[in-house]
Design brief:
The protein has 357 residues and is mainly β. The protein folds into two domains: 37 residues; 313 residues, YVTN repeat-like/Quinoprotein amine dehydrogenase (Methylamine Dehydrogenase, Chain H). It is built from one helix and 28 strands. The protein is globular. 45% of the residues are buried.
Length: 357
């Protein structure tokens, strides 16, 4: 055998092996980078995630048919919880997808939900319209133990609820002008009464440790301090419902952002009360509803008119993704239970939960 021929054959084989090794190494590196990039909404340091990372919307039904999911939050147990307006139930969705119903005996129309400072879920009950005795607040532990909370006496359809900087529950009343303050021990007081009988829509605790809320009956957004001092700030368009500020969230830029339902705009308001409106011009858009801040630092909202979930960055750039179920009744939207789970939106009409990631 010619030694050189043997050596050339050996070198060729080694060359092929090296090429194969390099290809496998490149595939492995790309796989690792892909898995790191494919985090929830491909979060980036500047808060603007590549749109190509977002795969679209998936939907799952509630355990009970026609439940009309109405409120939601991530519990202290790390699971996602929803309440159901048409039933007297709350549903727990575990991170592995397991779903469990818990009955809230005596409830009529569950509404807002928040994870309280004591680790339990606090849920408002709008009861039977015009029957104040049925307006309640419920406390549900993450083990499903239910108890009514005494002391709630405002008597006007409690709706959304938030935890204040003082560790108490601050409550929207949809049918009157009051903002309720409820301690975890059950002591209730009226924190503030809005002018003009402007019923409360949504309520959050701002980055300034004050409570902020929107109203049905006016073009104002209200700020209430922990000492119950209230101040109203008018939106730039000066339009009330259905065009005025509706649902509200706190963004990572330190401002408050709100949907303006039929005005097809999203309002940014500083904690000094200075407002700026950003139009949503996506084809078919209209009737903007829920809004939240995502793990990618962008604003995520539901668009009932377009039956879609939208994203707006802090510069006002908008992209929307459709929901498969027609006329789904998209309402509120929340960050998922962990940084990998995307955004979760409630479909009140379809009784489904939509997830985008």
């Amino acid at each position: 055998m010619n030694p050189r021929s043997y050596e050339r054959g050996q070198s060729a084989a080694e060359y092929v092996l090296i090429i194969a090794f390099v290809i496998l190494l490149v595939i492995a590196v790309l796989t690792i980078l892909g898995s790191k990039t494919n985090t929830a909404l491909c979060s980036t340091s500047n808060g603007v995630a590549p749109l190509s990372c977002i795969k679209g919307v998936t939907e799952t039904s509630t355990l009970t048919a026609n439940a009309a999911p109405n409120g939601g939050t991530t519990g202290s147990d790390g699971n996602f919880w929803i309440d159901e307006y048409n039933t007297n139930k709350v549903e727990r969705i575990a991170q592995d997808g397991t779903r469990t119903d818990f009955t809230v005996t005596g409830a009529l129309h569950l509404s807002g939900m928040v994870s309280g400072p004591d680790g339990a879920l606090w849920i408002t009950d709008q009861g039977s319209s015009g029957v104040p005795a049925t307006y309640k607040v419920w406390r549900v532990t993450t083990a499903g133990v239910v108890s009514p909370v005494g002391g709630y006496t405002v008597g006007a359809e409690p709706s959304e609820i938030t935890v204040g900087a003082d560790g108490a529950l601050w409550i929207c009343d949809a049918s009157d002008s009051n903002i309720g303050h409820l301690t975890t021990s059950g002591t209730f007081s009226v924190a503030y009464t809005s002018p003009n009988n402007a019923g409360c829509v949504d309520i959050v605790t701002g980055p300034d440790n004050n409570v902020w809320y929107t109203t049905y009956g006016s073009a104002f957004v209200y700020r209430v301090t922990p000492s119950y001092v209230g101040t109203g700030f008018q939106s730039p368009s000066a339009l009330a419902w259905p065009n005025g500020p509706l649902w509200i969230t706190v963004s990572k830029d330190g401002n408050l952002w709100m949907t303006e339902y039929s005005h097809d705009a999203i309002l940014r308001m500083t904690t000094a009360g200075v407002g700026t409106e950003f139009p949503v011009t996506t084809a078919g858009s209209g009737d903007l509803f829920g809004i939240t801040t995502g793990p990618d630092s962008n604003l995520w909202f539901t668009d009932q008119g377009n039956n879609s979930i939208g994203r707006m960055d802090i510069k006002g750039n908008v992209k929307e993704w459709p929901v498969t179920t027609a006329n789904s009744g998209l309402s509120l939207i929340f960050p998922g239970p962990n940084s990998q789970s995307g955004l979760w939106a409630l479909e009140g009409t379809a009784s489904k939960v939509a997830v985008i990631k």
